[in-house]
Amino acid sequence: MLLDPDARGQAGSTAEAIGIENVSMSFQGRQGPVEALRGINLTIPQNRFISIVGRSGCGKSTLLRIISGLIPQSAGTIRVMGRSTQDYQKEKKFGFVFQEASLFPWKTARDNVRLPLDVIGIGTPAERAARADDLLRLTRLEGFADHYPAQLSGGMRQRVSIARALSYEPEILLMDEPFGALDEFTRREMHDELIRIWQTRPVTVVFVTHSLSEALYLSDAIVVMAPRPGRIKAVVPVAHPRLADPDMRHHPDVIAQTRDLERLIHEQ
Ligand SMILES: Nc1ncnc2c1ncn2[C@@H]1O[C@H](COP(=O)(O)OP(=O)(O)OP(=O)(O)O)[C@@H](O)[C@H]1O
Ligand SMILES: [Mg+2]
């Protein structure tokens, strides 16, 4: 399924960021193989914001992990920026944000953010610290650089995770329910933050969520998956322009589209 390149959002590039062809994935479960994904076909153009929704167990995290090269698919091919995901992974251009902020508790916010740069060995130590401070500013955490994770709120920790994922300028940002643990208002702040970051420095974002309103608020298009076996049911372009106005959440079009998505997810 090819996402409509004219859907909305960033003008310009319709070049492919991620091409998924006939990808299937089976896990060895206790009662035999589990077909986590079957025949996934999806093309994601560069610099789009794509959400993946669907019931628990429909293979969303598995698909994200396969795209990132964390686990190999059982069948099919994945291209990332024209290369195999394994080749692409070597260039370390993926940013991955997990559901739980996975920060090192003994490192400060700044040192957590610069960690990937330290590991890859980009720039001098002073340049790495400066870059980390830039990213902490971008995620509105200036003033907290020397705080340890335990001294930060959940939303702040998640922003440190996002800053860290952005540290080495990924072309592709994979986010697995990054705001799942946040309260509704912090979540909304994070949405605006993420859109601002995305508009400042365009990247291709693949965003997994259980929240339809979140998916509608953030995305150019929504991939609806269904379980057993995990598969793509529909790719739905988001109809309204990206929401500068939070009241758009209550717009009749948005409510109608939420209802359509719910129907898609719940029908067998
Ligand atoms: N390492 C694994 N070993 C065995 N089975 C697995 C493994 N990882 C995932 N599965 C199975 O694959 C299916 C898809 O799992 P996945 O975690 O991708 O779902 P999900 O859509 O992310 O669900 P959720 O919304 O609950 O996070 C599930 O049936 C799960 O039990
Ligand atoms: Mg998951």
Structural commentary:
Helix content is 35%, strand content 26%. The protein is of the alpha/beta class and 268 residues long. The protein is globular, with a radius of gyration of 18 Å.
Break the fold down into its secondary structure elements and pairings.
Elements: E1 16-29, E2 32-45, E3 49-54, H1 60-68, E4 75-80, E5 83-84, H2 85-90, E6 94-97, H3 109-120, H4 125-138, H5 154-166, E7 172-176, H6 184-200, E8 204-208, H7 212-218, E9 221-226, E10 231-237, H8 252-266
Parallel strand pairs: 3-8, 3-9, 6-7, 7-8
Antiparallel strand pairs: 1-2, 1-4, 4-5, 9-10
Domain ABC transporter: 18-252
Keywords: ATP-binding, Nucleotide-binding, Transport
Protein name: NitT/TauT family transport system ATP-binding protein
Task: Write a brief caption for the model.
Keywords: ATP-binding, Nucleotide-binding, Transport. Helix content is 35%, strand content 26%.
Output the keywords.
268 residues; alpha/beta; Rossmann fold; six-stranded mixed sheet; four-stranded antiparallel sheet; 8 helices; 10 strands; 35% helix; 26% strand; disordered N terminus; binds adenosine-5'-triphosphate; binds magnesium ion; ABC_transporter_ATP-bind
